[in-house]
Backbone:
């Protein structure tokens, strides 16, 4: 029983130190003001695992489960994963005595809409999920993870979920952070939330069934981390990139595990940037490199370009801009261009013109609260932020890309 | 310029104390696990003001504005407020040299949908709002505030907003908390977010144009606070309720400001409950009193019952249940029933039947993560939580309500 009826004393304003932390502070007598302060703790685990679907492994069976969790599981998959792994998933859950419910969504960028979110919400309603102790488990690419994370954050104002990325871009980007969202009328990720999963499970064996183009797509985000903060990672891509694609990042015995090192560096680099800035209170974000012009490029070219491909065009453009500003050398530009070429990543697309790119920058300026805050590479492995990019600079850089790209080949 | 390229050392796992607070913690070498921990600070002000639209007052002109805010304002109104106050609002902003953009939405519960959220998002896009320093200002009833708060929380994953409630229920409930949301396929507030406004401005002069039924509607939520935690507030409602409605809570000189005391106690009581539990980590919530059966009753009866009316039916039902359990006396039950009657608040509606109420409880159990956590009044001004309510108890209580209500009249 609770009773606080006697403790109320409105005539005694509770003026405590309003800067001292959580609490309710009341000021003034005739026209009071209350200050409500609280802190929300967020905590999640990103765990690398091997062979998640091996029935002897427990990670998936226990994912998001607590003491009160029964044997039902609510799984959302994209159609590609359902096709490749549906049977193995059913076997896995059967082996663990669990009853999975599967909700299958299309994995394409054009389906990243509120309609897909509504599909998940409707299914959650029919399943009758319990609010806190029956986990939502999302297994799929970045599009699927963003949709399910969004639905989970909205359903009853937040329902826990687990992220299991199955693409390379998911493993190093969408799968490890806290952003969710969908596109809105051709605006990339215009609506969404920050909502941490309770757990992310990273299993690179899913890459064995990934189309080569989608591997290249993921390497664009790895290259991003390399360019802005990890020269060693760049060297690994330069030396081993095509071999890593060919091997689908399988670990190879005896010659040092390059695939594992590349993945770990990419995830570590990403998390180092995200953790101190989880809600983007600081809008100067290194991980926004390649994400200034690309949202507009990607949506304009839809479905022509994958996300990482659009990001790569943005990185090619800004590498040229940086080189023209003297922030990196022509030699460094050529090295970057060669890595992009070796990973089949485009440096140009016909939807790019100067006016369109300038408009894309304007939209990003609104997203970055009135300033460009444009990350530019400084050499290879470092970056700076500028606020004074001109349309002429965009024009000259675009000319470079149309005339053969960063390596001029 | 930032560079952390040299600081990376993946071979040295960073095992710090993972319970020590924010940070990125890495464990393990061959298959690493990262623990991401962060805390999000939330802080907002709830300010009582008089005559917000008086051009000599600055609260509205400065609401949500900072150093970099220009003279544009993005205002979302419901159609009732546009009709009553549109001209005064334009005059107000003109007097302060501001250029307002008005986005007008219907205020009815049946429009509390994702379509209305999409309407606001589309308008925000066209306005080209800056992400952090151009405030969204919501002026209207609870439905409008919930819709706009939801849109603000989703737009670019969060855009600051200001809440200005114009109904009594908005002043004491929807206007002062952090919940946002819309209905989904006849499920009340099934999707939403927790998203604090930067500021809530409470001006009871808006009540002068409020229909009497909507005043009664607001008194249901005030009665809720009284019943679970504030006996003095109950006495004020018992003694002055109808007079407060008749005067539309205008302050009266010379006889003690009962209207002000009632409003302050209601807001203070609400905030005392919300502040320590802003994200509902504890699902035993006193302010959930009257909100166990009412979400289903309200949606079934739509548009017949207002929110507070449905809440009152729930409170009448659970008062009878509590009395039958011996948690309050027949005399107390009669007093509660008389206050409800004096405020024209219904204690029954034909959509209520035993099976429907049992199903409503089942849905709420899912919302409360598998337990009833049902608040029941204990006397007047205190409450307890129970988990063992039976269908028979619902039946008997419903019989009471059909046979004349709590006061048997």
Residues:
């Amino acid at each position: 029983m609770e009773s606080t009826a006697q403790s109320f004393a409105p005539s005694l304003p509770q003026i405590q130190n309003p800067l001292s932390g959580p609490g309710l502070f009341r000021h003034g007598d005739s026209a009071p003001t209350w200050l409500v302060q609280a802190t929300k703790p967020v905590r999640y685990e990103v765990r690398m695992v091997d062979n998640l679907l091996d029935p002897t492994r427990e990670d998936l069976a226990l994912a998001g489960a607590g003491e009160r969790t029964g044997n039902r599981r609510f799984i959302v998959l994209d159609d590609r994963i359902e096709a490749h792994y549906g049977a193995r998933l059913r076997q896995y859950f059967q082996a663990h005595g669990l009853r999975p419910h599967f909700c299958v969504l299309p994995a394409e960028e054009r389906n990243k809409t509120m309609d897909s979110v509504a599909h998940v919400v409707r299914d959650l309603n029919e399943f009758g999920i319990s609010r806190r102790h029956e986990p939502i488990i999302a297994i799929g690419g970045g599009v699927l993870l963003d949709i399910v994370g969004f639905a989970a954050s909205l359903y009853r104002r937040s329902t826990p979920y687990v992220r299991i990325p199955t693409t390379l871009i998911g493993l190093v980007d969408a799968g490890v952070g806290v952003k969710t969202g969908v596109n809105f009328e051709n605006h990339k990720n215009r609506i969404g939330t920050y909502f941490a999963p309770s757990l992310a499970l990273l299993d690179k064996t899913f890459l064995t069934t990934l189309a080569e183009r989608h591997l290249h797509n993921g390497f664009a985000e790895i290259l991003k981390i390399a360019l802005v903060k990890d020269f060693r990672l760049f060297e690994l891509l330069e030396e081993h990139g095509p071999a890593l694609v060919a091997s689908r990042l399988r670990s190879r015995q005896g010659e040092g595990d390059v695939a594992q090192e590349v993945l770990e560096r990419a995830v570590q680099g990403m998390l180092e940037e995200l953790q101190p800035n989880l809600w983007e209170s600081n809008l100067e974000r290194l991980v926004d490199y390649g994400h200034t012009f690309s949202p507009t490029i990607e949506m304009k070219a839809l479905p022509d370009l994958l996300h990482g491909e659009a990001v790569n065009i943005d990185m090619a453009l800004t590498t040229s801009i940086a080189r023209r500003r003297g922030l990196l050398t022509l030699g460094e530009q050529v090295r970057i261009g060669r890595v992009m070429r070796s990973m089949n990543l485009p440096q140009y697309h016909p939807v790019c013109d100067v006016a369109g790119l300038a408009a894309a920058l304007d939209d990003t300026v609104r997203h970055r609260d009135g300033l460009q805050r444009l990350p530019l590479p400084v050499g290879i492995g470092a970056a700076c932020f500028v606020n004074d990019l001109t349309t002429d600079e965009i024009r000259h850089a675009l000319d470079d890309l149309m005339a053969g790209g960063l390596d001029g080949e």
Summary: Residues 45-209 of chain B form a domain with the Rossmann fold fold (CATH 3.40.50.1970).
